[in-house]
Amino acid sequence: MTISDMESEAHELFVAYLEKELSSSERETFERKLNEDSKFEAEFLEFKNIYIILENRLSPERATVLETIKQANSNFNYKPSKVTTEKKVIKFKPWKYGIAASILLAIGIFIFNNFSKPTYSDFAARETISLTVRSDVDETTKNAEVAFNSADYSKALIYFNELLKVEPNNLQLQYYKSVALVELSEYDEADSLLKKISESNSVYASKAKWIKALSYLKQKRYKEAKKVANSITSSDPEYQKAQKLLSKL
Fold first, then answer.
1. What CA–CA distance (Å, rounded) separates 226 from 244?
2. How many CB atoms lie within 10 A of CB 160?
3. Segments forming the whole domain that contains residue 169
């Protein structure tokens, strides 16, 4: 891998962090590296400063940066520019345009991926649950059902946790809890729970695989989503949905 390739990968990682595309564990790893590696932190802060300018598509600073990059590509004559706004003056050193061009490339990759790949909202169908089929159910169960069915997943998660303290092996509750976790982007806990359910012999096993595929899709972890979708067999109720997802991936 060349230095240029390594820089490109680092810049894509920086964009993913700034765009909040990383999972919670990935963000923790990234932030730990920022705290422990001063060179990495300095590169990120320099990148972030330029990124803030470039992410505002209508800003005069962004327009000037784009024009300078365009001129540099045509005549290889980098010139420092001075951009004046009502609030501040921004000076760009010549070498910063190389970083700016790289940032634009990284942003472009994300835009391309977002337009060319399926999204979580394309496939996520809001489920409704019926936990209160018995007449002797308690208030917590009723509250869990109402919260989940009204898409109040934060509140539903609280009730599911209370119910699972009493019935820790209830796979139905575990499954609906995992759905709520994915909706709340609590991926690590959701993926761990879904793995456990999908490896069981319960009726929720194939459903858990499907939600796990959607969890990866929501995280833009397309390879993992494809792998899980491929594990859903023709005998599973979710097979047709999985095939449709695979055709888009």
1. 11
2. 27
3. 121-248
Number of residues assigned to the chain: 249
pTM score of the predicted model? 0.55
Can you spell out the DSSP letters for 185-197? T-HHHHHHHHHHH
Q: Minimal CA–CA distance to 104: which of 5, 11, 6?
A: 11
Same domain, 139 and 109: no
Number of domains in the chain: 2
| Residue whose structure tokens are 């976790």 | 181
Residue in 160, 201, 231 with CA at minimum distance from that of residue 211: 231
| Torsion angles phi and psi, residue 53, rounded to 5 | -70, -45
Residue 72's pLDDT is what?
Answer: 45
32 falls in which pLDDT band (50, 70, 90)? very high
How far is residue 131's CA from residue 168's CA, in Å, rounded to a whole number?
A: 16
Block residue for tokens 């802060």:
45
Q: How far apart are CA 57 and CA 70, in angstroms?
A: 16
Note whether 112 and 131 are same-domain residues.
Answer: no
Note whether 20 and 99 are same-domain residues: yes
Tokens 């709520």 label which residue?
180
